[in-house]
Amino acid sequence: MPRPAMLRSLRAQMLIGTIVVLVAALTLMAWSAWRLLGDALEERFAAEAELVEPLLAAAIGPLLAARDYATLEAVVQRSVEARGLGHLAVLDSSGREITRAQGGEPAAVLPLTMPVVVEGQRLGTIELGIRTDARERARAALVERAAAVGAVLIAASVLLLGLASTWLTRGLRQLADASRRVADGDYRVALAPSALADVQQVSQAFERMAHAVQSQMQALRDSEAYLRSVIDTMAEGLVVVAADRRVLYINDAAARLLGVPAEQYTVAQSERYGIRVYHPDGREMTPDERPGARALRDGVVVRDHLERLVTPAGESRWLSVNMTPLVREGEHAPYAVVATYNDVTTHVEAEQRLRTANEELERRVRERTAELQQAKDVAERASQAKSEFLSRMSHELRTPLNAIIGFAQLLGIARPPLPPAQREQVRQIETAGWHLLELINEVLDLSRIEAGAMSLSLETVQLAGVVGEALGLVQTQAAERGVALAHHVDETLWARADRRRLLQVLGNLLSNAVKYNRPQGSVTVTANRRGDRVVVGVADTGRGFTAEQLERLYQPFTRFEAEGETVDGTGIGLVITKRLVELMNGSLHVESQPGAGALFSFDLPAAAPPAQAPAAGAATVAAERRGDGVRLLYVEDNPSNLALFEQLMTLRPGATLSTARDGLAGLALARSLQPDLAVIDIDLPGIDGIELCRRLRADAATRAIPLVALSANALPADIERARAAGFDAYLTKPLDVGHLLDEIDRRTAARGTRR
In angstroms, how far is CA 285 from the centroid of its own chain? Predict the structure, then answer.
């Protein structure tokens, strides 16, 4: 049972302690006096007994010896009455009681026994009882006086001690009162001075402590106010929740996000307010599944937990939640958790819209891809149809040109020679044929470039060799016009380009420079290294271009002829040249003034020379064989081409020519004749030239026969397909008689060497 508060005070404890000490001291003193009094009375009784004993023995001894028991009884009775004894008894020597007298009321007695001896003979025994009433009365009086003195002493001591303790504990009471005020938040402490040095020191220390606590509490309140203002101004919601689910703090942003006033909101009652929480997949989240419960239960930190919250007003918000458990030192279970809420509704909805838009875009892309694929298929079919058309047109145009140019060449080298007038007519026919062939080639090149079907084979090319070869192509043309050709190209310059197309570019530029030059003019080719580029220039001394002509310079089929002037050309050479340079990772530029000539320049990537570079101008001379006994097979279905080839073979009188008009007949002749060379057209009835080549290469008996394709199909794809089938060479129509004869002589010479 707890003690009353008043008994726990310092004064009460001092009073109680003093009273206990006084009572104990008085009790000890009373007990000591009581014992001293008892001892004194005992000594008195003993002294009286010593006085009475001889008297009784003298009075009783003779009577006992005389056996005068009546007198003995009277003496005993008078002795009891006279002496105030408690009792007196006489016993004989055998211990038998002779007489006994009892004095007054029964009382406490002090028993004594003494023998009765007369003349050395023991006659009996006297039993004497001395009354102790006086001793008891003295003791009672002593106790009464001690109690009275003790009560007075205790009362005086309590009074004095109460006054003294009140005076002594006044400073302590002031400290207690000040402590209560400090505990209540009142730090304005001013204690009265104390006469006691110890109390004064404690009071001064308490005042300093109170002032320090006041300063710290003020700083703490200022810091708390600052922190609250910062937290309340945060856009991020913050809630501190205790382990028992009490909300220790919630800022305004969190209250707004949760849709419940801060003073009403508690986590335990959140369901009562109608707050619902959902997983991102739409499932409602139970209270135990919420991140706060998980952080308090498992003590884990939760980061960037995405959830959808529906407020009591029905507003839906996406929140990114972070949870940090708070754990006291030495403990394992969290006592609270700090939760932060970020409103990411805009981001999530934007992401959802973006996802929807992406899905829609993907759907549209799939649809568009299907449309584009369909369009691509249509375009590819159209491109294929165009390629087939161009190939067919090329074939159909080259086939008659083959006869025209071929027979013109044969007439030009006829023996005996034709008359001069006829030779000029034949030359005009041949020139017109070659011009028409050039037009066909350029149109086909332009079509391939525009269709993106032009393929290049980039390699390391020595510019000096290509320039020299290109100058050789226009040497005759320049001599006829009196135009001087010159070049300043270092043999150490190399570029990355397609050699054949680079030769075509230089040929076009040199041809234009010669055609549009003045009589006795000049054309100069230069090449210089500029950083990682090589710049090639073709300068002429012609009439130049006006500004209006420069704007239309690269338009197809545009020609700048003077009035009454006729210049050979198609008007698309420069267009092809520009596109070819760009395909070789370069660019074409022109500088010109009317009457001052023109400078066409283009740049290409520079390259290092290969490990073993051929010497400039080196040429390989094929062995010629004009001996007798050469067997030739020509497979062609066109009669004019057959006639032309037969006429051509008259230039090799020792050769034997066999012909076939379809692929199967050509296959049979090749197997039976085993010719030294077979010249095969591609478009043949029965089986085409490609299939015929494959069969000849597959047969061990005909595998070694040199095969030369001679076709009007001049597209690169046609040439590549023929070479892949196994042809040793591919010549295009219209044929170059000299080139064809050289190829026949070279192939048959090699065949004869092997035989």
Answer: 28
The secondary structure of 390-412, three-state, reads HHHHHHHHHHHHHHHHHHHHHHH
Dihedral sign (CA 686, 689, 694, 699): positive
Token pair recorded at residue 180: 């209560």
Q: Which residues contact 35 (CB under 8 A, 6 or more apart)?
A: none
Residues 486 and 522: beta-carbon distance below 8 Å: yes
Give the CA angle between residues 559, 562, 564 to the nearest 5°: 115
Q: Alpha-carbon distance 2 to 4, whole Å?
A: 7
Between CA 410 and CA 422 the distance in angstroms is 13
Phi, psi of 380 (to 5 degrees): -65, -40
pLDDT digits (tens, 9 = 90+) for 370-397: 888 888 777 667 666 666 666 566 666 6
The sheet carrying 302-310 orders its strands as 247-250, 237-242, 336-343, 316-326, 302-310, 276-278
Q: Which residues of the chain have pLDDT under 50?
A: 1, 268, 270, 564, 613-627, 753-754
Q: Are 536 and 463 a contacting pair, CB within 8 Å? A: yes
Q: Which residues are within 8 A (CB) of 680 and not within 5 positions of it... i.e. 6 or more apart? A: 634, 635, 666, 689, 692, 693, 707, 708, 709, 710, 727
* Cβ atoms 291, 241 nearer than 8 A: no
Classify residue 335 by its DSSP letter: S
Taking the CA atoms of residue 380, residue 385, residue 389 and residue 395 in that order, the dihedral angle to the nearest 10 degrees is: 80
Q: Which residue has the tokens 């001075």?
A: 193
Longest CA span, the chain:
229
d(CA 331, CA 560): 99
pLDDT digits (tens, 9 = 90+) for 302-341: 888 888 888 877 888 888 888 888 888 888 888 888 888 8
Q: What element of type H or E holds 123?
A: strand 121-131
655-671 confidence digits (pLDDT tens): 888 999 888 888 989 99
pLDDT tens digits, one per residue of 262-312: 666 655 454 556 678 888 888 888 877 888 888 888 888 888 888 888 887
Token pair for 648:
């051509």
> Could you give the CA distance from residue 504 to residue 381 in angstroms, rounded to a whole number?
30
Residue type, 658: S
The kind and range of the H/E element at 166 are helix 133-168
What is the number of other CB atoms lying within 10 angstroms of the CB of residue 282?
7
Long-range pairs of 180-186 with CB within 8 A, sequence gap ≥ 24: 182/210, 182/213, 185/217
Give ∠ CA 414-415-420 in degrees, rounded to 5.
70
For Cα atoms 42, 43, 49, give the angle at the middle one, nearest 5 degrees: 90
